[in-house]
C-alpha cells in the first residue's frame, strides 16, 4: 500500500506544460530502470531467466531501448511490433513472437528476424511450414481449459480463444520434431492484471508438470517455459503490489521440486510482462477545461478515452487521479471526470471523491504507463496525444509528438478524392 506520486512538483509541471501543452503522457526512466533491476535481481535465481517486455503495453522504441539496456527482450504480436523491437536493436531469440490468428507475412517477418515463434494453434504448424518454414526453435501456447477452472480469477481459459488444448500440445511437439524442429518451448498466458501471488505460482506449477508430462510421453525435453504476462499493479491506493522476490522464490521452489528431479534441469524460465514493467511509471497529464453542473458534477478534460481507453473498456478498471498542487487538499467534491468523445462511457472516473477542481487545474491520471497511449484511437476525429520521457538525469524529452490533423488525413488520397468529386 502506498500513496500515488508524480515525479514533478506543480511549478515544474506548469513550466513543462508551457513547452508541451496538455494532454501528454509522461514516463519516468528512473522508475522504469529501478523496477527492471528489482525484477532482474529477484528472478535472477531462476535458470536462464529472461523477460520479454510485452511491446503492446508501451510500444515506443525509446522505452524498448531502455529496457533492452536493462537486459530485457521483446514480446511482439504483430509486424509493426517486430519492427519496433528491431528498431530498438532487439533481435533474434531476444524476441518472442506470441501472436494469434497470425498472417503469413508476419510469420515470415518473425522468421527473418530470428524471433522465437510461439504458435497459437495446432493448425499453425502446417501453416507456418508452408509459409515460412519450421525453425529449429519453436514454442507452443497452452490453454489449460477446464484444468484450471478451480481458480476463480483465471478468466475462464475454456472461453479463451488462445492456445492449444492439452491433447493438441502433446501431439504438437513430436510433429514439430518430425518437421525438423530441435529445440522447444512452452508458453501460457492465462490471466490479466492479477495481483494474487499464489495464482502466478500455480501457473508455473501447471506448466512445470506439463513439461514433465511432455518429456515422459514424447521423450522431448523442453528448453524453456514462458510463464507469460498478466502480473497486476496496484491501481488502487489500497492494493498490494506483487513481491518479486516472493514470487521468484515460489517459482524456484517448484523448479527444484518438479523440474530438476525429472531431469529437465537445463530448462530456462522466461516471462513476458508488460503492465508490471512500465504501468506505474507513466502518467496522463491533462488540463481541466470545463466544469459542468447538471444532475451530477462533471470535470471536462482536454484528453479523452482516445488517449486512455482502459476506464471505458473495462468496467473494473480504476485509475487514481490527483490534481497538481492539491495533493493534500481534502476530497470535498464528487465528480465524474470525463473526456470529449460523443460516448457516455468516456469517463476517466465516475463519482470519484476529489478536491475541488477549477478550470486550468492540471489533472494527473496515474498508472497509465502500460496499455495507455498504446490503446489510443481516432474515433470522433480525436488526435492522440504525445509522449514525454523524464530522463534519469532530470531532463525531459519528447519521445513521440502529438498527432496532428495532417496525420489524421494522411491515409486519405486527396488526389483520388479530387478526381472522384469532379467526375461524380
Ligand atoms: C498482453 C500480453 C502480455 C503482457 O500482458 P501484461 O498484462 O501487460 O503483463 C504478454 N503476453 C501476451 C501473449 C499478451 O497478449
Give an account of the 3D structure.
The protein has 424 residues and is α/β, with parallel strands linked by helices. The chain has two domains: 29-277, Alpha-Beta Barrel (TIM Barrel), CATH 3.20.20; 279-409, Lyase, Ornithine Decarboxylase, Chain A, domain 1. It has helices at 10-19, 29-43, 61-69, 79-87, 104-112, 124-131, 166-178, 197-218, 244-259, 275-278, 310-313, 405-409, 414-422, and strands at residues 24-28, 50-54, 73-76, 95-98, 116-119, 137-141, 183-187, 224-226, 268-271, 282-293, 297-301, 321-323, 333-338, 347-354, 362-365, 386-390, 396-400. Strands 1, 10, 11, 12, 13, 14, 15, 16 and 17 form a nine-stranded mixed β-sheet that branches. The chain has an eight-stranded parallel β-barrel with strand order 2-3-4-5-6-7-8-9, surrounded by five helices. Helix 2 (29-43) runs parallel beside helix 9 (244-259). The longest helix is centred in the middle third of the chain and has 22 residues, at 197-218. It is globular and about 70 Å long. Residues 54, 56-57, 75, 98, 189, 192, 228-231, 272-276, 370 line the site of pyridoxal-5'-phosphate.
- The structural class is alpha/beta
Bulk shape? globular
**In CATH's first tier, which class of the largest domain applies?**
Alpha Beta
Helix/strand order: HEHEHEHEHEHEHEHEHEHEEHEEEEEEHH
User: Which fold name corresponds to the CATH topology of the largest domain?
Assistant: TIM Barrel
Helix content: 25-40%
Number of helices: 13
Mean pLDDT across the residues is 96
CATH architecture of the largest domain: Alpha-Beta Barrel
Bound molecules: pyridoxal-5'-phosphate
The CATH superfamily name of the largest domain is: Alanine racemase
Strand count, sense and closure of the main sheet? 9 strands, mixed
**Could you list the spans in which at least 5 consecutive residues all have pLDDT below 50?**
149-154
Q: Nearest-angstrom radius of gyration?
A: 23 Å
Distance between the termini: 64 Å
Amino acid at each position: 500500500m502506498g500513496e500515488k506520486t508524480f515525479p514533478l512538483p506543480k511549478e515544474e509541471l506548469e513550466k513543462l506544460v508551457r513547452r508541451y501543452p496538455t494532454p501528454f503522457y509522461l514516463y519516468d526512466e528512473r522508475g522504469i530502470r529501478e523496477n527492471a533491476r528489482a525484477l532482474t535481481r529477484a528472478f535472477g535465481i531462476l535458470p536462464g531467466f529472461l523477460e520479454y517486455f510485452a511491446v503492446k503495453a508501451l510500444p515506443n522504441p525509446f522505452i524498448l531501448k531502455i529496457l533492452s539496456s536493462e537486459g530485457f527482450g521483446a514480446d511482439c504480436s504483430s509486424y509493426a511490433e517486430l519492427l519496433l523491437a528491431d528498431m530498438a536493436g532487439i533481435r533474434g531469440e531476444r524476441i518472442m513472437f506470441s501472436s494469434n490468428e497470425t498472417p503469413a507475412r508476419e510469420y515470415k517477418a518473425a522468421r527473418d528476424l530470428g524471433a522465437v515463434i510461439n504458435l497459437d494453434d495446432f493448425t499453425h504448424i502446417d501453416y507456418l511450414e508452408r509459409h515460412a518454414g519450421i525453425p529449429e526453435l519453436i514454442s507452443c501456447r497452452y490453454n489449460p481449459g477446464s484444468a484450471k477452472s478451480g481458480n476463480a480469477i483465471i478468466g475462464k481459459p475454456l472461453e479463451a480463444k488462445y492456445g492449444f488444448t492439452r491433447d493438441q500440445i502433446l501431439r504438437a511437439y513430436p510433429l514439430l520434431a518430425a518437421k525438423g524442429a530441435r529445440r522447444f518451448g512452452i508458453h501460457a498466458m492465462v490471466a490479466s492484471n492479477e495481483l494474487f501471488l499464489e495464482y502466478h505460482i500455480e501457473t508455473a506449477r501447471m506448466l512445470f508438470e506439463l513439461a514433465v508430462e511432455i518429456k515422459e510421453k514424447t521423450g522431448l525435453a523442453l528448453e524453456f517455459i514462458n510463464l507469460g504476462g498478466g502480473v497486476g499493479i496496484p491501481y488502487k491506493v489500497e492494493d498490494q503490489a506483487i513481491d518479486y522476490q516472493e514470487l521468484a522464490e515460489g517459482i524456484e521452489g517448484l523448479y527444484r521440486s518438479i523440474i530438476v528431479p525429472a531431469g529437465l534441469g537445463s530448462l530456462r524460465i522466461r516471462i513476458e510482462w508488460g503492465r508490471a514493467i512500465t504501468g506505474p511509471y507513466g502518467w496522463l497529464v491533462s488540463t481541466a477545461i470545463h466544469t459542468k453542473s447538471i444532475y451530477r458534477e462533471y470535470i471536462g478534460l482536454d484528453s479523452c478515452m482516445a488517449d486512455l481507453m482502459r476506464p471505458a473498456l473495462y468496467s473494473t478498471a480504476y485509475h487514481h487521479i490527483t490534481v497538481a498542487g492539491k495533493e493534500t487538499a481534502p476530497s470535498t467534491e464528487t465528480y465524474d471526470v470525463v473526456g470529449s468523445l460523443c460516448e457516455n462511457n468516456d469517463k476517466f472516473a465516475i463519482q470519484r471523491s476529489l478536491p475541488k477542481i477549477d478550470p486550468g487545474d492540471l489533472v494527473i491520471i496515474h498508472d497509465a504507463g502500460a496499455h495507455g497511449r498504446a490503446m489510443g484511437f481516432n474515433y470522433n476525429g480525436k488526435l492522440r496525444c504525445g509522449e514525454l520521457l523524464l530522463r534519469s538525469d532530470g531532463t525531459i524529452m519528447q519521445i513521440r509528438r502529438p498527432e496532428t490533423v495532417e496525420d489524421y488525413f494522411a491515409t486519405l488520397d486527396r488526389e483520388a478524392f479530387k478526381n472522384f468529386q469532379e467526375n461524380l
